[in-house]
Design a protein that fits this description.
This protein has 290 residues and is of the alpha+beta class. The protein is 22% helix and 18% strand. The protein is built from 4 helices and 10 strands. The strands form 3 sheets. The chain has a 4-stranded antiparallel β-sheet with strand order 3-5-8-7. A 4-stranded mixed β-sheet has the order 4-10-9-6.
Length: 290
């Protein structure tokens, strides 16, 4: 008597597979009767309906704790960040005065960036505020003072860096303008009553290459009237204040490492901080001239 199992033919295997898919004798489909399939479908329908309902309920409860205009919990940075415009790769502004195509992109980017600061737009959308004091617009208990007004920051305040007199922002003449902006922080009142200002300089190894600088507005200040910021939804037309730095006689054909930082009573800029954008921004400027 042979111990070896007899091998099934392809026909037998096919018949078994067909019988599993549909058994006409027991009326089973894939091993289950219609009533068994119905119970499984009902179970999963109820189960996933419950999970969906639980998720929706959780989200609804969470949304009841969220303020549309102000974060419920705000991890405010002690030192706000700084950034520059034109926005450039690896924070390097590198161009050749004689090659228009090398600085055209910078001009286009600055035109787009400064367009919302045109005087006509600012006058139409924002208020003429009193300089030197915070523009506070508190809510009255449960009654929200929204939408909140914003102060005008007119493009003409940027002087020779406004792009109105010199359409190339000084890039064509080798005296480029770089714009500094302070990152928005809801509720921040920087300066403790005195306007913070921006100061720029070269790193130690390049201190003899940077030359003279000009700041616009004068002294590179962020006027107090642009603070506090109440959020994008509450202050729809808010115009972020800017400081323009114009490099008047920088050394050509050489890399100059520049650092700009904010100076204010209540803002401490620590050179040892890991975040290199906390209260300061560093970038490389190189202007080539044949």
């Amino acid at each position: 008597m042979s111990n070896k199992k007899e091998k099934k033919t392809c026909g037998q295997l096919l018949d078994e597979w067909k019988g599993f898919v549909w058994n006409p004798r027991t009326h089973e489909f894939l091993g289950r009767t219609a009533s068994s399939w119905a119970l499984i479908l009902v179970f999963y329908l109820v189960f996933y309906t419950f999970l969906t309902g639980l998720f929706c309920l959780t989200m609804w409860v969470l949304l009841q704790t969220v303020d549309d205009y102000k974060p419920t919990y705000q991890d405010r940075l002690a030192t706000p960040g700084l950034m520059i415009r034109p926005k450039c790769e690896a924070l390097e502004i590198d161009y050749d005065i004689a090659k228009t195509e090398s600085w055209d992109d910078y001009i286009t980017a600055l035109d787009s960036f400064l367009a919302p600061y045109n005087n006509s737009i600012q006058v139409a959308n924002n208020d003429h505020c009193t300089p030197g004091q915070y523009f506070i617009q508190e809510d009255s208990g449960e009654v929200r003072n929204n939408p909140k007004r914003s102060c005008q920051f007119n493009r003409t305040e940027l002087g020779s860096c406004s792009g109105l007199e010199d359409r190339t922002y000084g890039y064509q003449n080798g005296t480029p303008c770089v714009f500094i902006k302070l990152n928005r922080v809801i509720g921040m009142k920087p300066g403790s009553g005195e306007s913070p200002y921006v100061t720029c300089g070269a790193k130690k190894e390049d201190s003899d290459k940077i030359g003279m600088l000009a700041y616009f507005p004068p002294n590179g200040t962020f006027n107090l009237m642009y603070f506090p910021y109440y959020g994008k939804k509450a202050q729809v037309n808010y115009s972020q204040p800017l400081v323009a730095v114009k490099f008047l006689n920088i050394t050509f054909n050489s890399d100059v490492n520049v650092e700009c930082k904010i100076v204010a009573r209540d803002i401490k800029v620590d050179a040892e901080q890991r975040d290199k954008f906390a209260g300061r921004v560093s970038f490389k400027l190189r202007i080539n001239k044949s």
